[in-house]
Amino acid sequence: MKGLKFLTAAIFLAVFISAFGSETPVSAKTFAEKAESVFEKASSAENSKKLYVKAARLYEKAAEAGAKNHKLYLNIGNCCFLAGDLGRAILNYRKAERLNPLSRAVQKNLSAARNLRLDKIDPNPENIIASNIFFWHKDFSLKTRFYAALLLVSVLLILLSIRLNCPAFPGFWPTIFVLVFLASCFGISAGISISQPDNSEGVITAVKTVARKGNGEVYKKAFETPLHSGTEFDVLEVRDEWLKADFPDQSIAWIKRKDCELF
Q1: Residue 108's CB: how many other CB atoms inside 10 A?
Q2: First-residue to last-residue Cα distance in the chain
Q3: What are phi and psi of 232, to 5 degrees?
Q4: Same-domain pairing of 166 and 241
Q5: Are residues 152 and 214 in the same domain?
Q6: Most buried of the four, 16, 114, 124, 158, by CB within 10 Å?
């Protein structure tokens, strides 16, 4: 409950943050302004849940109109959370995290929402170790990693040109080694993200769904109990109305496509 109170308070502060820059289309700004107005009314209305749902939809229309940034998806997630839709709240917090992994507001709200999930799936220890070692892949956005790689390569080329005119450059080789290593880390990481297909991750948005060992109702249940809203997974395969999901503990099962959202 402490996490719930914190998140609710944070939401009322964060939702008024402007999510739109000067380059945002006028139609997107219009939808955003309407969404903010509806959100304000919802905070003191008896039918607040319906208004939060309406505000979320207006923010989604702003995204469809071209306004895509982490603050926008944070606001959508906040509206979904207050409307009681935990699955879509986590979905949009994850979208916000992709665009700005370093946002404290996104991380706090995402963490608080995850703590309210019914399914407790512990990640595989090997995945945790790998995530800590290659932290930059998750902690920095694709844009940041891409430009970091370009900057490091530029510095590398400048140093090489200086070396040609100044052979007695002190500490040249250690510096070159570090730059090559960092440029490779950021460059490879950015390349992996660019080559990653769309909708490679997902979140269960249905209240509950039965995971099965194959892509059909005739297959046995993969788990003893249903999976619930907010559970996250990686997408391995999509086949008709079913998809093959890889969960954080590396268990694999098939779930209905209509019971989840991909991003």
Answers
A1: 16
A2: 29
A3: -105, 155
A4: no
A5: no
A6: 114
Separation of alpha carbons 254 and 231, rounded Å: 14
Q: How far is 93 from 195, CA to CA, in rounded Å? A: 23
Cβ neighbours of 188 (radius 10 Å): 14
% of the chain with per-residue pLDDT over 70: 84
Q: Does 103 map to a domain? A: yes
Q: Does the residue 206 lie in any domain?
A: yes
Place of tokens 């512990």: 122
Domain of residue 72, CATH code? 1.25.40.10
Average per-residue pLDDT in the chain?
A: 86
Q: Are residue 67 and residue 149 in the same domain, yes or no?
A: no
Q: Which residue has the tokens 């490779």?
A: 184
71/166 same-domain check = no
Q: Which of 7, 17, 25 is nearest to 64 (CA)?
A: 25
Counting the structural domains of the chain, the total is 3
Say if residue 56 is in the same domain as residue 16: yes
Identify the domain containing residue 185 by its residue range: 136-195
Of 1, 245, 252, 258, nearest in space to 116 by CA: 1
Give CA separation, 142 vs 59, 101, 255, in Å.
23, 10, 29
Q: Measured between alpha carbons, how far is residue 16 from residues 11, 12, 81, 152 in Å?
A: 9, 7, 16, 37
Tell me the chain's radius of gyration from C-alpha atoms. 22
33's tokens: 């302004």
**Closest by CA position to 192, among listed 134, 245, 240, 237:** 134
Bridging pattern class, strands 252-256 and 242-246: antiparallel
- Give me the amino acid identity at 256: K
**Looking at this protein, which amino acid is placed at residue 220?**
K
What would the pLDDT profile of 133-180 be if each residue is shown by its tens digit? 667 667 787 788 888 888 999 998 888 888 888 777 778 888 888 989
Confidence tier at 197 by pLDDT (50, 70, 90): low
